[in-house]
Design brief:
Blueprint lengths: L5 E7 L6 E3 L10 E3 L14 E2 L4 E4 L5 E8 L1 E7 L4 E6 L2 E2 L3 E3 L2 E5 L5 E11 L4 E13 L3 E5 L5 E3 L4 E7 L6 E7 L5 E7 L2 E8 L5 E6 L2 E6 L6 E10 L6 E8 L5 E9 L2 E2 L47 H48 L2 E4 L9 E4 L12 E3 L5
Parallel strand pairs: 4-22
Antiparallel strand pairs: 1-13, 2-6, 3-5, 5-13, 6-12, 7-11, 7-13, 8-9, 8-12, 10-11, 13-25, 14-24, 15-18, 16-17, 17-24, 18-23, 19-22, 19-24, 20-21, 20-23, 26-27, 27-28
Amino acid sequence: MVEEPTLLVTYEGTDPVIMYWPPADQEIFGWQTVYPDLVPSDGATDTMRSSKNSVKTTMRDGSSFSFDFHGTSFKLYGQAAQSYYTVTVDETVRPFELEDGLLATVSDLGLAYHWVNVTVTSTAPSFSLDRIVFDTGLVKGQEETYLSIDQAWSYDPCCWKFNEHSTQGSTSINRVQQTTTANSIALFNFTGDTVYVYGTLASNHGRYSVSLDGLSSPFTGWSRYSVSHSLLFFQTGLHPYIPHELKIESLDDQVLSLESAVVTSTVDNTATSSIGFGLPDTSLVWRWVGSSSRTYRPSLDGSPSTSSTTPTATSSHAAEPIKRVAVIIGAVCGTIVLFALSTIVWAACRRRRFRSALRVAIDDVTVYADPPGQAGSRHRLSTKACKPHHLEPLLLTRIDQA
């Protein structure tokens, strides 16, 4: 049986889904956006360009970039010359393969979410990243594109407007929805397991956040050059049969520009069984309960973030700490319940013993009294057992004088 090709996803070097440190185009020797085909006389930064024709280059030791993805392997394309760098996957430094035109190839990863960080320890003379391609491990299925002007989108009526622009080297016109108001929101509802969101970048663009099913991630749309069709957000590994809500919010009073969303339905290439209603068994893939890898995502300034503000699915390893906490909580609650029950039983037994002892003491009571006219002659007044709420008459028994 011939295996179907799996879905491959590409992150271009200028896409906001890649996080750079130091932030791109902020330092002279740090990460810089370079268009190899750009001649010195054509240095205008406001001309709309394509993200596919650029690379990110750094000459600063200690520079790094990071990204996350759901899949089984990835490849880094670029040029390293004689640079030294490390590739860390899920906080573990991994060995990698080198090929011509490739910075690294890392494969045989489990089908799950992974966080990748590449640190350039020594640049000699420079290090360049062109693009990242990763294998989702899922067979590509039906794909639908929703332009930002389609009815599938909804916007704050006060803050969004329609705009058009052209891209250098292309005859097509991009139609976009734009806002320049902070906290303005765009909503997109869909059903599928993979979603792409495309938009534009420019020097007058600001920060934005993307929330998927209630969990959000921060990004920046700022770029030295104006770039069209940039991947503003991407996510796969979602549950394929339930609706999802994607919310994009502008964080600054600067431009946020949306072009389109693409939704893809895929199937698990590793699952062969099926469940009810003829649906594929997705238990090996869909774990949409929050991603542990997403908690490692850096903030917009590139520093590590401990905030779990990002949506995602989790691997089986992410559930292990939750299971340990549940076991500890169960043990503590069980101990408290057992202690309470033992205390109640002990109190009941003690009360029962006290009542028994009281009955015995009453049965053994003996009273001595002098008969009338016979002082000094002692007679014993004995009582029979006295029971609660019932006292029998005392019987007087004469005691002969000794």
